Amino acid sequence: MYIVVVGGGNVGFHLTKMLLKEGHEVLLLEKDKHTYQRLEPQLGSALMLGDGCETRVQREVGFARADCVAAVTGEDEDNLIVCQMAKNTWGVERAIARVNNQEREALFKELGIDGVVSATEILFNLVEQEISAGSVVPLAALRRGKIEVIEAVLTSRSPAVGRRVRDLNLPPGSNIVWIVRGEHGLIAEGDTELRENDLVVILAPVEHGAELRKVLESGH
Question: What are the backbone dihedrals phi and psi of residue 174, each rounded to the nearest 5 degrees, phi first?
Fold first, then answer.
């Protein structure tokens, strides 16, 4: 699968790393020269300097053959333009946009964006459901495969703390793909030992949420 990610901030960088690890062909587009120079040593040929809103750049990076375009910049207007051009100009099957202002979420959906991810809505749901630290929180549904992207913060009482990733008894089809430790992101390897306060990102079938809680959450 060929995926174009537009926007080299934290979201775009970590998304690109995760997709590359999963074996996808990925290209991250970043228009800011300084950000590009900072990311280039880590991403190499998976990174390109260019404005994802420009037709010339879209043609050059191959929007026409992309299976998915994900616009995750910090500017809602840019994300909307990128996704609309991907759908209407290049016929991209799936376009996903990050929306920073929740008031615009309905507009994005009305205009035919396939997937809209709102950080504000995620935070609201955390408060609304009174989810405490250490709980497993679904971040987004990958509708086609019935897979969830799940985030969990490990407390000192989590049974996963002090154990290696390979030793965890995760539900079938579930994989820890990324760990945020302090200010650093880590690719989850089999020998990676989990620590207190680690934020782990997991891909898991939607029906295995309860089993993941037993593996990752603190006891009650």
Answer: -100, 140
